[in-house]
Amino acid sequence: xxxxxxxxxxxxxxxxxxxxxxxxxxxxxxxxxxxxxxxxxxxxxxxxxxxxxxxxxxxxxxxxxxxxxxxxxxxxxxxxxxxxxxxxxxxxxxxxxxxxxxxxxxxxxxxxxxxxxxxxxxxxxxxxxxxxxxxxxxxxxxxxxxxxxxxxxxxxxxxxxxxxxxxxxxxxxxxxxxxxxxxxxxxxxxxxxxxxxxxxxxxxxxxxxxxxxxxxxxxxxxxxxxxxxxxxxxxxxxxxxxxxxxxxxxxxxxxxxxxxxxxxxxxxxxxxxxxxxxxxxxxxxxxxxxxxx
Length: 293
What we know:
Blueprint: H1 2-18, H2 21-26, E1 31-36, H3 44-54, H4 60-68, E2 72-80, E3 83-92, H5 125-128, E4 144-149, E5 156-161, E6 174-178, E7 184-188, H6 191-200, H7 218-227, H8 229-239, H9 252-255, H10 269-292
Antiparallel strand pairs: 1-2, 2-3, 4-5, 5-6, 6-7
């Protein structure tokens, strides 16, 4: 009885955590093997230890999330030709894996060894295309960056504290996406907004690239149009109002119209033959007249 009661309680918690997305995925055509990893809540002392170690205050919504479950993992697959292919993945790292993006320099490293801080440079708001309130994070001590999701190697979703001062506790945080070219893209101002965004996009591959100027890859767009047609169409219309870049306009009347048959040119030999015929006839008549004489 107690085991059944615990399973029922966990199912209710899972429904609230996933916002009912598991039932939606299970009813989609071709979706199989929907898995939600059960995790225990994080302890308060682990949260306090993380804050003291990193000199940062966790946002209130992220703290409440960790006190409910220490991380989040939901995966699902699709069935193609009797084979299960992993497709969707929604991931939030646990407190223990909420590590800094920039690891401290090792004592054994070379003094002039290159680092991500070497890629950092000042850009004006007009050059970077960002508003002053959304200035991109820095790879040096001005920003403190912690990895929330590795995105399967397609980038990193990070918890970012900007305008930091060494030795001073940072409090204001945002959620940013670092793509594979090491360019920053703003996602949301709060963790709750990002969590809902992740659930809405079903954890599809490269969904974070929908908030970049160049968008996801063609293969990722195909998956999005198949399992997320409404949101995919909205994103296409927002990116390009005309839709000429993404939509291939086909005119069936022109594509399948048969070529008009060109009539063959008339042969000129018939006119020559007709003109030469009377001359030959006149010659024959002269011969017949000569024999009579």
